[in-house]
């Protein structure tokens, strides 16, 4: 019942008030049943007082049940909202290097699991009322005849155990289906992002659905049909046992005369009122299995739902990393980072790397495909924590406590960058002052506008998107700029603007620039050119020969 714990944690007092209101409404409903019973037994239904009492209790029932349901609905919605926000925040706060391997899974959590939990949580108000009604009815049954209640409970427990039997194996099937869901979302990703390729290639397209998507959905269908049908079979048998049991109780009463006819009628009337809420409760039990599995997935992705107060990012980064002109802006000492390729039994190792980057220096990094340039860029800007050695910023070691502030020094345009429409983090005054000038310089002024700190479009050509990303990085105005092959594939005209105007401009403003590039003809724009080969940084005296070799 983790979901109840979530509701309670969300607001203990609202939960308690809701529980009390639901309890009163359940008791009031039982009182209504009691009065109906009494009215059948005696002639007092005609009495005015009784009618007023009856209406009064009905009013209590209606108001308290609406109030209780309102509170539980409110709490449920708060839990759903909290869950969405907490998970989004945790994803943003989690270590990038851990999450980058499970993006498909995260996507399934954000869409599938959260929807599963939400769709079940909204049923809770009705379940809450059903539980309190059943409790009150049980109390009333004991009041009418504890002996009959004991018999009823024996029958009920037998039916319940039968109903409960297949739930664990159903849970296992749900768990398998949910694991398939992660894989399926990966295939859907291929379907969406590979739409061009699939549309062009007829054979691959038909095989993609037939041999990739269909077998998995077939498996899911099998598990769902078998699991659900088994639950239905057992619950119908549970109902049969309940009805046969009640029939059996009637027989026992008749044969043994254990109680009077009147008591039996009263007891049966309450039983009839109890069966509807009872079946509502039992029908929701498989849903709790689904919630537990969804919560398990969230948990195992390292995204528990505990709210945490994140340490606020110190606004003034210079307090955390005071500028020490004599120290390099970034220094890597024996830094190493490896990827483990479990399926290949070998891994790529970057480093150990020793590198000093001075403030205001323009550094170009070159190297063949797979030599580790992007990996070094990620270590450099704090996305990957070094597995060996240390990174320092103005002489101060970068550690988990200050890494957020360290990353905040950078503006990075990755080779596979994502362009957000929203630029809400850039002050309007900066946009007013500088955006138009840069839009013109990058020849984007006829394509894109910035309205209310939002780009009017990002549906642009690859080159235009790169130019737009550059414009945004300019507006962000960070101390260190890192470009991963920004100029690759651009027109010579924009390359020239980039190397001959923008980079010198950044340097003149005291910015440190680190660019991964293959544009040999612009190497004179750099203060330093460094080269990676199979994860190792080449000694400077070897660089000249290697450059000749690299470009020939
Ligand atoms: N997320 C990752 N998980 C596992 N291995 C990775 C990952 N990213 C890169 N690698 C491996 O690390 C090595 C270096 O990759 P990296 O992207 O740093 O090279 P690169 O020099 O930037 O290459 P390119 O010029 O092709 O972009 C490659 O062998 C690659 O297979």
**Ligands bound to this protein structure:** adenosine-5'-triphosphate
> Based on the structure given, which CATH architecture of the largest domain is correct?
3-Layer(aba) Sandwich
Rg measurement, Å: 34 Å
Q: How many E strands? A: 12
| Category from helices, strands and their pairing | alpha/beta
- Give the strand content: 5-15%
Count of the domains = 3
Would you give an account of this structure?
The chain is of the alpha/beta class and 552 residues long. It has three domains: 1-145, ABC transporter transmembrane region fold; 146-258; 317-551, Rossmann fold. Helix content is 64%, strand content 12%. The chain has 18 helices and twelve strands. The model has no long low-confidence stretch (mean pLDDT 84). The site of adenosine-5'-triphosphate has 11 residues, from α13. Adenosine-5'-triphosphate (ATP) binds next to α13. Keywords: ATP-binding, Membrane, Nucleotide-binding, Transmembrane, Transmembrane helix, Transport. Its main location: membrane.
């Amino acid at each position: 019942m983790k979901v109840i714990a979530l509701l309670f944690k969300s607001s203990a007092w609202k939960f308690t008030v809701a529980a009390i209101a639901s309890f009163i409404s359940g008791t009031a409903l039982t009182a209504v049943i009691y009065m109906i019973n009494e009215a059948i037994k005696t002639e007092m239904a005609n009495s005015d007082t009784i009618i007023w009492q009856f209406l009064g209790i009905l009013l209590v029932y209606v108001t308290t049940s609406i109030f209780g349901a309102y509170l539980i609905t409110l709490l449920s919605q708060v839990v759903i909202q909290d869950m969405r926000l907490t998970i989004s925040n945790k994803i943003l706060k989690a270590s990038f290097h851990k999450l980058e391997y499970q993006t498909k899974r995260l996507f399934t959590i954000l869409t599938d699991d959260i929807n599963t939990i939400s769709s079940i949580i909204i049923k809770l108000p009705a379940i809450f009322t059903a539980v309190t009604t059943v409790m009150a009815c049980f109390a009333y049954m004991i009041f009418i005849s504890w002996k009959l209640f004991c018999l009823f409970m024996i029958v009920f427990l037998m039916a319940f155990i039968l109903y409960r039997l297949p739930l664990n194996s159903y849970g296992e099937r749900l768990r398998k289906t949910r694991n398939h869901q992660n894989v399926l979302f990966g295939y859907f990703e291929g379907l969406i992002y590979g739409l061009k390729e699939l549309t062009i290639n007829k054979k691959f397209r038909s095989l993609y659905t037939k041999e990739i998507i269909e077998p998995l959905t077939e498996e899911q269908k099998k598990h769902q049909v078998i699991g659900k049908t088994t639950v239905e079979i057992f619950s119908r048998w549970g109902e049969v046992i309940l009805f046969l049991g009640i029939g059996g109780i009637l027989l026992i009463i008749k044969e043994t005369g254990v109680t009077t006819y009147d008591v039996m009628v009263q007891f049966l009337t309450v039983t009839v009122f109890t069966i509807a809420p009872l079946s509502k409760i039992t029908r929701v039990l498989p849903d709790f299995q689904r919630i537990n599995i969804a919560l398990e997935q969230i948990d195992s992705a390292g995204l528990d739902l505990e709210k945490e107060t994140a340490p606020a990012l110190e606004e003034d980064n210079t307090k955390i990393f005071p500028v020490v002109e004599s120290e390099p802006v970034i220094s890597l000492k024996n830094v190493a980072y490896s990827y483990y390729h479990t399926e290949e039994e070998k891994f790529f190792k970057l480093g150990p790397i020793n590198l000093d980057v001075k403030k205001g220096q323009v550094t170009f990094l070159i190297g063949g495909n797979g030599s580790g340039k992007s990996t070094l860029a990620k270590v450099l800007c704090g996305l990957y924590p070094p597995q060996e050695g240390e990174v320092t910023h103005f002489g101060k070691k970068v550690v988990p406590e200050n890494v957020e502030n360290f990353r905040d020094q950078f503006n990075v345009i990755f080779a596979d960058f994502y362009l957000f429409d929203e630029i809400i983090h850039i002050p309007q005054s900066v946009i007013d002052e500088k955006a138009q000038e840069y839009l013109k310089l990058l020849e984007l002024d006829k394509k894109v506008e910035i309205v209310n700190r939002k780009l009017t479009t990002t549906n642009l050509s690859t080159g235009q998107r790169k130019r737009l990303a550059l414009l945004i990085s300019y507006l962000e105005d960070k101390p260190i700029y890192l470009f991963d092959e920004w100029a690759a594939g651009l027109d010579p005209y924009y390359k020239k603007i980039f190397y001959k105007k923008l980079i010198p401009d950044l340097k003149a403003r005291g910015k440190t620039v680190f660019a991964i590039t293959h544009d040999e003809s612009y190497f004179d724009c750099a203060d330093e050119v460094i080269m990676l080969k199979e994860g190792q940084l080449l000694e400077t005296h070897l660089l000249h020969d290697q450059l000749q070799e690299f470009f020939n």
